[in-house]
Every structure is written in structure tokens, then in C-alpha cells.
Amino acid sequence: MSFLTIEDVTYSYQGKNPVLHQVNWEIKKGEFHCLLGKSGCGKTTLLKLAAGLLQSDKGSIRLQGSEVVKPSPECGFVFQSPNLLEWKTVIDNVLLPITLKRKITEEDRRQALELLELVGLASYYDRYPLQLSGGQQSRVAIVRSLVQKPSLLFMDEPFSALDAITREELQDDLLRMCNMHNMTVLFITHDISEAVYLSDVVGVMAQGEIVYQSTVELERPRKMEMRYDSYFNEFCLTLRQVMGGEHS
Amino acid sequence: MKKMPIYSFLLLVLLLALWEMAAGTMSELVLPAPSIIWFTLLDGMKSGYFTQHIIRTALEVLLGLLFGGTLGFVIGILMGEVTFLRKLLFPYIIASQAVPKLALAPLFILWFGFGMTSKVVITALVCFFPLLESTVTAIQSSDKQKQELFRMLGATRFQTLIHLKIPAGMPGILAGLRVSAVLAVVGAVVGEFIGGSEGLGALIIASQGMMDTPLMFATLILLTVMGMILYLMITWFEKKWLKPYKKEK
After folding, report:
1. Range B13-27 average pLDDT
2. pLDDT at B248
């Protein structure tokens, strides 16, 4: 039984040429899916549609069988930039989703600190975002999206502004936390090896359509060495060929 | 650059010395020497002559700033949030910006009498616009991605305003408040020029009538100090409040 279903979704901005054209996708509970594509292929639009931030022109998007019409409290969203509120401390930023619903309890604070501990930022809880490095800010943003224990997480190129090593560390952090909470994830990226390393299923988008889909046959938990074995590299090459044509 | 404050102070001493020398060659009526002004100021403070005037003007400035500022802030938020209101009111706001507000002072004295009310109204009017404008701009220019985040979190419009738009716009709003504070002193003094027997502005007019130039200078110094205190208070508040907005180690 699928968890999130995207069926024949078409979308266009202000009635112009469609950005998305009859897209179909299905995610099962607990799976990690990556959508790969070049800039402007419509992947962010698809993610926003799935999250309920945009409404599709045609087709349907269902979360556990019910139509998505507005952002669901069961879903978390991590944006391209960390998007932290500069005037709140790290812990207050993490607790923001709860602050908007009800009063913060001691238990909430304890849980937020526990999550921060998982990404090694517990001692930074009373700092302000601008006092942190880019990687630390991204970690806080991920922790914030997890604080409500969402069952589904949408991520829009959250690591694209980071250096390669920090990115790999964050990928491991993310996988660890997803595993702990048995989370379902839809992840958007333009980085091929990131997609392969993270996901169970990889899809490639081009010009508003999904042109390729494949399952990644790598064991979990993923390890750093896997990035350098031949299966991994061949997989990357296939994806690269699908994405860009061979001539480039 | 560490010694800059000392140089600034030395410049002041030099200017005062020049002034003192120049004043020796002129009538006291035209240019009183700094020493004479200083003694006038000291005498007036000791005898309590200035006290009521200072209190009066300070009260007018603070009340005017409070009313004008609050109104500017609230209407600014409404106009920033509600497109309909903004489009409806903007032509009027632009028109009223063009009116020299201080020229309305005689009218307010006519309407509200010679008491404190008219001066508070003038001061409030002068403070209103800078804060209104900075608030509207601040509310409107809040980050679109952060707004999307709040939508994702299921925040209501009011929550988005309280938790995102106002705090995010705080640097701009406080800059508007700083402008308002400086203008508030001008507003109150001009109001007192036109009508009234109390307040530092009225005292300047009175000293003109009495041809007491040292008193006039002493009053000017008091007004300058008052304006500076107000300005420094707001800058201090701004620094404290805006600390997290700035990058620091």
C-alpha cells in the first residue's frame, strides 16, 4: 500500500506552458526517494505540490489515501536555504513548529535537545543562527523539521550550498535520523552521487516529466566506502547519461 | 583610531576657546561668551528656573512620540498586511507627506488651545509618518521562503505576523523610530514657539523678547542634550535588541 501517491499531475504557472506534465510517482512507507534533475526541470514545483504548498491543475496527490489540499501537520519540509529565524536562539528555532501550536513544555525542550545532540549541536542551543556555520545551520533546519516527528519529510536540495565533506557528514546524520524514526522521505537534488547514496529509489526528471526510475540495490546502513565501489559508480554513470545526453 | 574620542574632545576645547575670544570683541547681546552661558545655565538649574520647562517639553516629546509612534506602527502593520487598505490609503499618505506638518501648528493651537494638548498633537503628527513608512516597508519585505515555511507549519495569518513579519522587520522599524525621535523634539519646540508660556521653546521666545541672549543659548544647550539623550536611548535599545541579527563571534 503506497504512502504518497502522485497521479497524472500537471501544473503550470499562470496558464503558461506546463512546468509539470502528467507526472506519476509512488512512495511506500519508510522509503527514501530521490528526484534528480537539472535546474528548471520542475522538481521543486513537484515537491511543493506534494507538500500542499501549491495546488495542481490536473491529477491528484494523495497522502495515505486522502487528497492533499493544504500542508499537513504530518509532513516536514526542509528548504534549500536553512531558513532559520535570526532573532531566535537555536533551541527556539527548533521548537518553532510546536510554539505555533501550543505552549512549550519541559518535555518538548528535552526532546529538542536530544535531537540537537544527535547532530552534535546540543551545546549550541542558546546561540543565534548567524553565529553558526552554514553546515550547522543546515543541521538545525533538519532538526526543526523533525521536532514534530513527521511521518513524511520533503527536502528541497538542503545541502546544495555546503562543501563536499560537510555534505557527506550531513547525509549520514540524515540517514541515521530517518532510520530511527522510520521516516518516509522525498528528496530533491541535482547531485547524482548524493541521490544514489541516500535513496532506495531514484527518479530522473527532465522538462517536467519523469524520464527514468530505478531502485538502488545497496545495503543499509550506507557506508562511506560504498561511494567508491563499482556498483555505485556504474549507477552514477547510468544516471548521468540519462540526465545529460552522452555528448556533453 | 582609538584616540579619536580624545581628538574630538580637543576640538571642542579649541572651538570653545575661539568662541570665548571672539565673544570678547562683541556685544553680549549678539554673541555671549561660553563662560557666561555656562553660568546662566548653572544658575538656572540651581534655582530650579529651568526645571518646569524641561519637564514640560520632555513630557510633550515623550507623549507625542508614544501616541504618534504607536499609531504609525499599528496603521503601518495594517497597511502592510491588507493590500486593500494599502491601495486605498497610499495616495493620501503621499499627499500628507507633502504637507509641511509644522505649518499646521497654528491650526492645532486654534483647535486644541494653548495648553499641552496642541503640542502633543503636533509632535505626534510629526512622529507618525517616519514610523508608518518604515513599518509598511518592513512588513511587506519579509522573506518569501520564510513565509512558505510558516505556511508549511500551518501558522495562521496572525501568527505569521507576530512570529515572522514584525520581528524580521524590526531593524527597519527601529530605524524609523530613531528618525521619529529626532523629529519629536523639533515638533514640540515649534509648537511651543507659536503658543504657550511653558516649555523650552516658549523660553527661547521669551528670552528673545527680554533680549537675554545667554538664556537663549542656555536653553538651546538643554534642548540639544535632551535630543541627544533620546537618540542615545533608542540607539542603545536598538543595539541590544538587534544583537542576534548581526554576525559576531
Report:
1. 90
2. 56
pLDDT score of B38: 92
Tell me if chain B has a CB within 8 Å of the CB of A85.
yes
Q: Is B225 on the interface with A (CB under 8 A)?
A: no
- Mean pLDDT, residues A72-95 taken together: 91
> CB distance A77–B149 less than 8 Å?
yes
Of residues B232, B207, B182, B216, the one with CA closest to residue B65: B182
Query: Cβ of B153 and A86 within 8 Å?
Result: no
B164 at A interface, C-beta within 8 A:
yes
**Whole-prediction pTM value?**
0.83
Find the closest chain A residue to B145 by CA distance: A83
Domains defined along chain B, listed by start: 54-241 (1.10.3720.10)
CB A23 within 8 A of CB A209: yes
Q: Of the candidates A73, A87, A130, which has its C-beta nearest B247's C-beta?
A: A130
ipTM of the prediction:
0.87
